[in-house]
């Protein structure tokens, strides 16, 4: 009953005529029966069965005590053929830089594999696009578990998918001898394109930090036969957070057509930015296309400066002066400033804001001072916060006159002092400008000529008589009293009011003072001495008679 063993012949055949078996060596009769068995294994491996003769019951032979053992081993060659697929697509008429492989493996555990032939199938679609690197072997045996790899060159003769079939003839088939052969096949696949796509890159150049320009790059489909589908463009390396793709995907580009794709540049620091974007396509144009994105972030430096006065400006306590605010920048037009605010900081013993700010000569009529407020910082220091706004941005070249805030000079205890400018803001344009301030200076004219002050104590304001008078010598003595600490000035003028000299110009403490003034260079005539100190003003006449 075994499917692997089949009795083909029995001589003599007891099924035709019962056979009487004589003892071995008997000169007459039948001494043995020959049974012919054919082994046809249906599975691999060790296979066993038995042949059991049937005896006449009268022979008293126990059934099954006489058997014939059958044994055989089934083998089956097996084969596995694997083709290959080459990507990316390659230009028509160009050999692919990669090599495809056809892999043949003997997968049987019981038998070696005999291969008679390896060839391209006569029914292949594009057999001419694929060639063997070396001619495949024939009529050879692959041991169990062994494999071979046969390299293949691919040169597409047309666009899109190119495919060919490889046939392997082997004995990997069931059946008796003589050997039967079977054909096992698989495919080798490649892709061709006529031209593909080309793309450009973007260089934004210099970009202010507060600007976010959007610029396009182009992708051109150079094929004259097929469309190109762009699935996405992805920024994958470099400054990926500073560039944003703003186009929708997928996009189809017709043959010989060009599409534009927008990218926003968002610089957040000064210096250069670089990123790479990759173009992805489900078509056979490949994914080895890249867009280079470059740009440089920068800021516009602006500097505000307060006017520096000198002693030649003849400043004195009580005078109201403009402390001009000038500005310098190399690129006002790009700074785009239409609103600005800053603080002028000073010692409140030296200056007081006069509640007036004029627009400078380099701002147009659209500019107005929105507010100017003086507030204390501490017991010694005040600030005046000035805010101005215009419709048209600040523009021009070189040093620009922006504002003229006015301050009153107070009675002070020093002859010169600084004025600071701080907290400069351009509001929405702060991120794209670098702001700095330079202080100004106020100098009170304290020139003193041949003055020898003598302090006698606390007194009232007074300009005493000139000694001597009339004058015949080369000097005069001036005696004067200063009631309050502060600026004091003595002037000598002629009879028609022309200023001849300033023997005293200084900050003086309360007290009595004397000054010896040389007059040897003055001609004979009538002269006057004038005294100005705080609220006090007086004059005395003297005569030079030589």
Notes on the structure:
The structure is a single chain. The relative contact order is 0.08. 1% of the residues lie in helices and 52% in strands. With 546 residues, it is an all-beta fold. The strands form 11 sheets. Strands 6, 7, 9, 11, 13 and 14 form a 6-stranded mixed β-sheet that branches. Strands 25, 26, 27, 29, 32 and 34 form a 6-stranded mixed β-sheet that branches. It has 1 helix and 42 strands. The longest helix is centred in the middle third of the chain and has 4 residues, at 332-335.
Which key phrases capture this entry?
mainly beta, 6-stranded mixed β-sheet, 1 helix, 42 strands, 52% strand
Structural class: mainly beta
Question: Nearest-angstrom radius of gyration?
Answer: 57 Å
Uncertain stretches of 5 or more adjacent residues: 447-457
User: How does the major sheet shape up?
Assistant: 6 strands, mixed
Number of helices: 1
Q: What is the CA–CA distance across the termini?
A: 170 Å
The count of DSSP E runs of length 2 or more, i.e. the number of strands, is: 42
Shape: rod-shaped
Name the average pLDDT.
Answer: 89
Beta-strand percentage range: over 45%
Helix content: under 10%
Q: What is the element layout, followed by pairings?
A:
Blueprint: E1 5-11, E2 34-39, E3 45-51, E4 68-74, E5 79-82, E6 84-85, E7 90-91, E8 100-106, E9 113-120, E10 130-132, E11 140-142, E12 147-154, E13 160-170, E14 182-193, E15 197-199, E16 202-208, E17 214-221, E18 228-230, E19 232-238, E20 243-245, E21 251-253, E22 258-265, E23 271-280, E24 289-298, E25 300-306, E26 320-322, E27 325-329, H1 332-335, E28 339-347, E29 351-359, E30 368-376, E31 381-389, E32 399-409, E33 416-425, E34 433-438, E35 440-443, E36 462-463, E37 475-482, E38 486-494, E39 499-508, E40 511-518, E41 525-533, E42 536-544
Parallel strand pairs: 6-14, 7-14, 16-24, 25-34
Antiparallel strand pairs: 1-2, 3-4, 5-8, 8-12, 9-11, 9-13, 10-12, 13-14, 15-17, 17-22, 18-21, 19-23, 20-22, 23-24, 25-27, 26-32, 27-32, 28-31, 28-33, 29-32, 30-31, 33-35, 36-37, 37-40, 38-39, 38-41, 41-42
